[in-house]
Design a protein that fits this description.
Structural class: alpha+beta
Number of helices: 21
Number of strands: 11
CATH topology of the domain at 107-285: Transferase(Phosphotransferase), domain 1
CATH superfamily of the domain at 107-285: Transferase(Phosphotransferase) domain 1
Largest sheet: 6 strands, antiparallel
CATH architecture of the domain at 107-285: Orthogonal Bundle
Shape: globular
Radius of gyration: 26 Å
Helix content: 40-55%
Strand order of the largest sheet: 1-2-3-4-6-5
Length: 545
């Protein structure tokens, strides 16, 4: 029977494509824009903890859950990454919360595993590497997905993988939005980290554990831990070491086996630090770009294809019949992880090879090969300066890449003078938007180098500049000002001046709570900081309801 329910007067549901404890997922059609969508429906009463609370109390809890749901949807909608589903809309209709998302065409990784496991080494590495780029974007919010599994990964026809279902993701702070049943760990037993199975706190390394489970399954054809019951699977995750992959499949490279074992470490501290680290270890296992034209798609999508034929157009039937050899493609481009370098208008190269060297620098940034970025940028800067001058856009671009990579790698003493030179040569000078941003990063270098008084003075000067821009309407987002106020308050506390620290942090807490709500991670962090400044005899008020 055709379903004719219309959500919010716009999204017509056509077919149920998923169902679970959190709600239902429907295929639908956006009747205004005529595009396919996926609509997730959740009933608030199904998400509230059980009990015998009064009707008024449960109604209050339901209203609070609706507010938190919409706040979490805003966080998810802010994500912009090709490996993540785009969120289009959210709200409430006929007593149900709804989340409208992009509908991804393709095959689920679960179906691909069932059809074609165990995968070739390159294919498994390609899936994991693409998931790393998506997880890096998610964890930067910071959000933990908490339910990474094959059925939550779609593989498009061109091989691109897309991570689904951030609807049950939970912000890192344990008191922020939690659309879960109290005391029930969220996730799938076959891919659940030990700390998650024990209902303890989770962090991004819990998602990396699940990624290790996926890699093991893709390479071995089965999950790392199997048992007749879900409880038995969870107990094995907590208590038993995984079987090394080379005992199951001898041709697996030793570095890949080591990576999977590291990802499946029982203690989060023993796992790789973050998704970027995992990506770097997968790089040698990814296929290089091929010079041949892209062939027609096979019946099953190949996740290694985006690496073999990066940015190549999809072949048509005519092109496939008469294709001539294509020009060479630069080798080994990778999905982007670091923030993009500032764009610059074309300039005349200072030397015959400067343009090619700058293109190579961009490729190294894309690949996350930080030591090589530092070496090449250090060699390019003197040449570019000699030919173009210190304030030329290309020189500033190279210097920005150099300074950013130095800061990322912890080379603070070298990064500090670079950021100071960038602030001096920025468009608008040290008090323009670019100059203020470079000065902020220079202040962070001072702070981390232990130059507390100098860093504090610069934080105060930056706060005055940002406040003036906000009052004049040149800026509309107070986030940098909030960050500076918090840094100043924490500096005062560390310097043994709790009274002044309190006077800085308490108004900031009230401002952030009004803007972001009582459950925002920054609000929770500020309350914890203020609690450490409060004498034991002074009652600290609870968070606003």
């Amino acid at each position: 029977m055709t379903v004719t329910r219309l959500i919010a007067g716009r999204y017509r549901l056509t077919e149920k494509i998923g169902h679970g404890g959190m709600g239902q997922v429907w295929a639908g059609q956006d009747e205004r824009l005529h595009r396919p969508v996926a609509v997730k429906l959740l009933r608030p009463e199904h998400l509230l903890p059980g009990g015998t609370g009064s009707g008024g109390e449960r109604a209050r809890q339901g209203d609070e859950l609706r507010r938190r749901f919409l706040r979490e949807c805003r966080v998810t909608a802010a994500l912009d990454h090709p490996g993540l589903v785009t969120v289009f809309d959210a709200g409430e209709d006929a007593g149900e919360l709804y989340l409208v998302m992009q509908r991804i065409p393709g095959v689920s990784l679960a179906d691909l595993i069932a059809e074609d496991a165990p995968f070739p080494i390159e294919r498994a590495a390609a899936v994991a590497a693409q998931l790393c780029t998506a997880l890096a974007a998610v964890h930067a919010i910071p959000v933990v997905h908490r339910d990474l599994k094959p059925s939550n990964v779609m593989v498009r026809e061109d091989g691109r993988t897309v991570l689904l279902d951030l609807g049950i993701a939970t912000a890192l702070d344990t008191e922020t939005t939690r659309l879960t049943l109290t005391g029930v760990p969220v996730g799938s037993p076959s891919y659940m980290a030990p700390e998650q199975a024990l209902a303890a706190t989770t962090d991004p390394r819990s998602d990396l554990y699940a990624l290790g489970c996926l890699l093991h399954e893709m390479l071995a054809g089965e999950e790392p831990f199997r048992a007749p019951t879900a409880l038995g699977v969870l107990r094995r995750h907590v208590d038993e070491p995984p079987v090394p992959l080379r005992e199951l499949r001898p041709e697996v490279p030793q570095p890949l086996e080591r990576l999977v074992l590291d990802l499946l470490a029982k203690q989060p501290a023993d796992r790789p630090a973050d998704a970027q680290t995992v990506y770097a270890r997968l790089l040698p296992l990814l296929p290089p770009a091929e010079r041949a034209p892209q062939p027609r798609y096979a019946p099953l999508p190949d996740p290694a294809r985006p690496y073999r034929f990066p940015h190549q157009p999809q072949p048509s039937a005519v092109v496939a019949a008469v294709a001539a050899p294509a020009p060479a493609v630069r080798s080994e481009p990778r999905p982007f992880l670091l923030p993009p370098a500032p764009s610059a208008p074309p300039v005349v190269p200072a030397g015959p090879d400067l343009g090619a060297e700058c293109a190579r620098l961009s490729d190294l940034v894309d690949a996350g090969r930080h030591p090589e970025v530092l070496g090449l940028a250090a060699r390019l800067l003197p040449r570019a300066e000699a030919g173009l001058g210190d304030a030329a856009p290309l020189v500033r671009t190279i210097r920005t890449i150099y300074a950013r990579t130095l800061l990322h790698e912890g080379h603070l003493r070298q990064a500090l003078p670079e950021y100071r030179r960038l602030a001096a040569t920025a468009d608008g000078g040290p008090h323009g938007p670019q100059g203020l941003d470079h000065r902020y990063r220079a202040a962070i270098c001072l702070d981390r180098l232990g130059h507390g008084p100098e860093a504090l003075a610069e934080y105060r000067a930056l706060l005055a500049a940002h406040t003036a821009r906000l009052e004049s309407g040149l800026d509309t987002d107070p986030e940098r000002s909030h960050d500076l106020r918090e840094r100043i308050g924490l500096h005062l506390a560390a310097a043994g001046d709790p009274q002044n620290a309190w006077q800085w942090l308490l108004p900031l807490l009230l401002d952030r709570e009004r803007r972001d709500g009582p459950h925002h991670p920054a609000v929770r962090r500020l309350r914890q900081s203020l609690a450490t400044l409060t004498p034991a005899s002074t009652p600290w008020p609870p968070a606003h309801p």
